[in-house]
Amino acid sequence: MDPVRHLKISIGVLLLLLSFGTFGYIAIEGWDTLDALYMTVITLGTVGFREVHNLSSAGKIFTMLLIFFGVGVIGYIVGSLAQIMFEGQFQRIMGRKKVEKAIAALEGHYIICGFGRIGSLICKEFSAKPLPFVVVEKDPAMVDIMEQDGPGYLVLRGDATIDDVLLKAGIKKARGLISVVTSDTENVYITLTARGLNPDLFILARAGEEGSEIKLKRAGANKVVSPYLIGGSRMAQAILRPTVVDFIEIATGHEHMELQMEEILIPPGCGFIGETLASSGFRKETGVIIVGVKKQNGKMVFNPESHTKLEAHDTLIVLGEPAAIQKLEQLVGCDTCAEELIKKHRKKDD
Asked: Is the peptide bond before 132 cis (omega within 30 degrees of 0)?
């Protein structure tokens, strides 16, 4: 059992003994409340003071029982405190409180359920982005490793199938949840729980066995991924189309800084809404390649033509150098830049 829980239980038992002793002296000896409480405290504390009043035979027997139980409880409390202080539990408790406070402050973050092989890779990618996230892990040994020797991720110990755990992880304010525990059954339960707590949440789930994908989607997952299916397909493509695979690895891997593939959302109220790709000047100003445009209804326009119009909630899939992509992100978010660029490139387009 957790030493902190040991301490809480023993303090609770001590309070019960104080109440029991106080009411016991009142009932047996007929003392007032203050005298009864004082006698209980000095008895449990074994300080050796004389009795408040002379004790009857029943009172003496009651006092011996109180001493017997009191010494055991107090010894238990001292042992729990020593364990907390000397085994580094105090620092861990304070660190855990700090983490819980940081998790409570998160908004628009992702919840990653399970820190296995796949979960740890997802955390690594999110950290490189970076994206705010919290890890929910029920294995105490794994949580201890992450807290002591881990890379500093926000970790919450608990079972993600339980409502209270996901609520502590901030599911009401989260942008998405990724369930990658090893059991498909647990992934289904986590998906059901998360969907019930936040109907608008984006949920990505892992499927390990054939047929689990349908069950996960029925449970409320927006997207289901099978690592084994993807891994097998990737290995086959590495033989059939090695150059294509190399290009995809360069474009999507964060370790390759010379070329990146990214997606950029056109937010409502953006100054470029209603303009074409040509009149927006995105390509000429930044040098990025716009590979595709995903419309709000899910339709994907590949290799869009220059007269393709930009609409609110469009997602641009772009390919280019990181600096060029960052410049495009700044242009999309800059209201004052839109009018000037549109005038400049609309004249050229005409």
From this structure: no
Residues sharing a CB contact under 8 Å with residue 206, sequence separation 6 or more, in sequence order: 118, 179, 180, 181, 187, 224, 225, 226, 227
Predicted TM-score of the model (pTM): 0.63
* Residue pLDDT, tens place only, 117-150: 888 889 988 888 788 999 999 988 888 777 765 6
Distance between CA atoms of 69 and 19, rounded to whole angstroms?
A: 13
* Other beta carbons less than 10 A from residue 298's beta carbon: 6
Task: Please tell me the distance from the alpha carbon of residue 36 to that of residue 28, in angstroms, as a whole number.
Answer: 10
Q: What was the pLDDT predicted at 38? A: 87
Classified as helix, coil or strand, 168 is: helix
The pLDDT score that the predictor gives to residue 220 is 92
Measured in whole angstroms, how far is the alpha carbon of residue 201 from the centre of its chain?
14
The CA–CA distances, whole Å, from 183 to 53, 143, 152, 187, 197 equal: 66, 18, 26, 6, 21
